[in-house]
């Protein structure tokens, strides 16, 4: 892997692509974005592989008494940094060069994985050491993901923002697919040590890819003559003020936060379901996790084709997801369970791409670091709670019952989102930072008028 073929500016990449390049995938005609996107694929695949692998290791090998609680605590540890560090992440993304933040986060995660690998090879690591490594990896990922989302306009043209958002959201799907396939299987064959080595290699590769990419940070200054006055620096608002001035966004985020209490529990339920209901091993865990990831990947690339306003489309998708998550509780057969998880993943991916693409255009540039950090924190606030509640319940209730609880719990969130869409207020007057973005929001409503502000799953 060398730096020269990747470290090409977007202008050079587009010039090389020519007219036919417009028809090629964005990651091929924009090499800088392709490198950074591939880096995100590697980091999220690594953290997903670690989560799936360790969850299966806890349930199948490490913990005999109360494996559900131990698995729930582990998943809670993996989700706390994104919530607790939101203000710190927003400040770092706003203050430092985005490439430096991305490169540093990936490098530190690689170091943490390498340290765990050495410990595991020397002696079997205690559960607390694995928890500590999970906390370190989740902390690094909490910086990496919102920083990359904020960096999209620095890597692509405005016309490619939605396409870039689709690729970016597909990262979690690719990670869920590749990481889930490797996580449990690696633990079955090489233990925690082999799992940590694979994660370390992925993080180091991601750091090298990000370091080789060029970000367009000086476009404004290049276009300004020395005699022109310096452009005014937009006021950077606090996280609370950002959401306070976007009430419609806030309500939608809260709807999805409530939904996440039930959707994200699937990561705790899958290992318990595999062991208790299907009597399977790491291969079965890999199949179910990969089905979820494959569905989400397809949804990320087809989400723009779902008709209707974002709130209406989101309500229908949540309703379909409720049926899909409840399915394994009614029909405990492996192909049926895999199919239900694929449908649930598609719903998540389809809804996500609609709302994130809308936010990329409507949120003022100066607010994006804080907004995407607080968005990640608000949506992630339910993850530790869901992990602990469903993990603890898994020691007393059948995994089939937990599946039914997931499906039933999504119904109120879907209804609330549908009601919110039917009571959409009149669009507020656009401020200078969002007026242009609002005018370009053509795909969201397909000629029905603009949505004032959208949301994200």
Account of the 3D structure:
- The chain has 457 residues and is mainly alpha-helical.
- It is 75% helix and 0% strand.
- It contains 19 helices and no strands.
- The chain has helices at 10-21, 26-29, 31-62, 67-84, 86-95, 98-122, 127-155, 161-212, 219-222, 239-244, 247-263, 266-276, 282-302, 310-330, 334-362, 368-380, 382-393, 399-422, 435-439.
- Helix 5 packs across helix 7 and helix 8 packs across helix 13 (282-302).
- The radius of gyration is 22 Å and the shape is globular.
- The two termini are 35 Å apart.
- The relative contact order is 0.15.
- Residues 1-22, 218-234 and 424-457 have low confidence and may be disordered.
Please give the count of helices. 19
Number of strands: 0
Percent helix among the residues? over 70%
Q: Strand share of the residues? A: under 5%
The rough form would be described as globular
- Broad structural category: mainly alpha
Order of helices and strands: HHHHHHHHHHHHHHHHHHH
Main sheet? none
Distance between the termini: 35 Å
* Rg measurement, Å: 22 Å
Query: What is the average per-residue confidence, as pLDDT, rounded to a whole number?
Result: 78
Low-pLDDT residue intervals, each spanning 5 or more residues: 1-22, 218-234, 424-457
């Amino acid at each position: 892997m060398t730096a020269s073929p990747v470290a090409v500016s977007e202008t050079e990449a587009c010039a090389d692509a020519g007219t036919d390049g417009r028809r090629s995938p964005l990651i091929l005609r924009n090499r800088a974005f392709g490198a950074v996107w591939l880096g995100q694929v590697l980091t999220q695949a690594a953290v997903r592989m670690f989560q799936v692998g360790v969850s299966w290791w806890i349930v199948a090998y490490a913990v005999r008494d109360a494996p559900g609680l131990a698995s729930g605590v582990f998943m809670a540890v993996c989700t706390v940094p994104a919530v607790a560090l939101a203000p710190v992440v927003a400040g770092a993304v706003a203050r430092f060069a985005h490439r430096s933040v991305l490169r540093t986060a990936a490098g530190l995660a690689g170091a943490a994985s390498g340290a765990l690998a050495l410990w595991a090879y020397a002696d079997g690591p205690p559960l607390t050491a694995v928890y500590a490594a999970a906390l370190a990896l989740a902390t690094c990922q909490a910086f990496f993901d919102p920083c990359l989302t904020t960096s999209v306009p620095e890597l692509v043209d405005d016309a490619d923002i939605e396409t870039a958002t689709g690729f970016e959201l597909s990262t979690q799907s690719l990670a869920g697919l590749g990481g889930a396939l490797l996580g449990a299987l690696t633990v079955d064959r090489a233990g925690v040590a082999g799992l940590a080595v694979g994660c370390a290699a992925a993080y180091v590769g991601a750091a090298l890819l990000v370091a080789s990419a060029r970000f367009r940070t000086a476009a404004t200054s290049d276009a300004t003559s020395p005699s022109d006055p310096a452009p005014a620096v937009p006021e950077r608002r606090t996280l609370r003020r950002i959401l306070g001035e976007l009430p419609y966004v806030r309500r939608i985020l809260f709807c999805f936060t409530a939904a996440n209490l039930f959707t994200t529990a699937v990561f705790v339920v899958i290992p318990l379901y595999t062991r208790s209901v299907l009597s399977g091993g790491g291969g079965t865990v890999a199949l179910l996790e990969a089905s979820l990831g494959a569905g989400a990947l397809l949804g990320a690339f087809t989400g723009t084709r779902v008709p209707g306003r974002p709130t209406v489309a989101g309500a229908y998708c949540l309703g379909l997801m409720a049926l899909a998550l409840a399915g394994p509780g009614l029909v405990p057969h492996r192909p049926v369970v895999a199919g239900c998880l694929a449908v649930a993943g598609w719903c998540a991916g389809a809804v996500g791409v609609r709302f994130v693409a809308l936010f990329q255009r409507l949120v003022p540039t100066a607010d994006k670091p804080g907004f995407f950090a607080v968005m990640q924190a608000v949506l992630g606030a339910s993850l530790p709670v869901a992990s602990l509640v469903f993990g603890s319940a898994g020691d007393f209730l059948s995994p089939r019952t937990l599946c039914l609880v997931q499906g039933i719990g999504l119904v109120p969130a879907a209804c609330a989102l549908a009601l919110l869409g039917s009571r959409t207020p009149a669009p507020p007057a656009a401020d200078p930072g969002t007026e242009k973005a609002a005018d370009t929001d053509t795909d969201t409503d397909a000629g029905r008028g603009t949505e004032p502000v959208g949301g994200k799953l």
